Amino acid sequence: MITRRALLGGAGGLGAAAALGGAGYALVQHEVLPGRVRLDRALGRCGNVPEPPPRPVRIEFMTWRSARRRTAVTAAIVPPADGRSLRGLPVVVALHGTGHTATSLVASLNLHHYLPDAVANGGVPPFALVAVDGGKDSYWHPRADGDDPLGMITDELLPRLGARGARTDRIGAIGWSMGGYGALGLTRRLGAARTAAVVAASPALFSSYEDARSVNRRAFDGRTDFERNDVFASPAAFKGVPLRVDCGNSDPFAKAVRRFRDRVRPEGSMSGGCHDVAYWQRLLRPQLAFLGHQLAAR
Description:
Elements (H helix, E strand, L loop, with lengths): L3 H7 L3 H7 L1 H8 L6 H7 L17 E7 L4 E8 L11 E6 L6 H8 L1 H11 L6 E5 L16 H15 L3 E10 L1 H13 L4 E7 L7 H7 L7 H6 L14 E6 L5 H11 L5 E2 L5 H6 L1 H14 L1
Parallel strand pairs: 3-4, 3-5, 5-6, 6-7, 7-8
Antiparallel strand pairs: 1-2, 2-4
Helix pairs in contact: 2-3, 6-13
């Protein structure tokens, strides 16, 4: 009998599928052999990056020395229209993925194009989208070295936005990959009383500590840290929170995301796409609409 471990370790992933012919192709498609993401990309199943809407708004930047993160952080504020102040606007905090910053997140996903278009042409109630630096591999939870990116959001970012007139009593959150996991963690931190709506796009979820270590050894400080921040362990934390979770079928996190969706039953879907900008930009319009309408209803 050939074990799954033997298939995974000894056959060489996508090359093994090619060597095995039609049977190997089927194994890759059903995720018994690794390589489905590469196979789907080669077959053109990941799709192309769409053209962003025209006429972006001007991004405003706010930088301060964070006590919670023990470093300087920058927030990139995307208004719903040029010249619109924060006064009276609800806020959606945007959480970036591994290796990114607030600035690179906005630029890579063209958030400063999509938000004003959603408001001006999509009938979405206006809100401010605020990306913030959370650390390139912090995984958006308190770390053993004292770095606390979620504490930075709750204790520093939101009060600064509130002082400028933004509505921060109940907020929205959206995140991609590591940031998708972070958006779920922020929901647990704030609770339903302060969370108006959340979108987790392709969240980087792990079924076990061993799984997390195999993907990113820096994601957690140890097994206890993983268990303390395991979103699967507390499904009740999402009760009463309007939640949307989307993931591509060709995403390496798809299996874990399906498990989370089965447990929590959020809105959103599993659909064609990969763990990339092409998939994320294709879903921005419905995700921003979900956030805007939920914020307006609160």
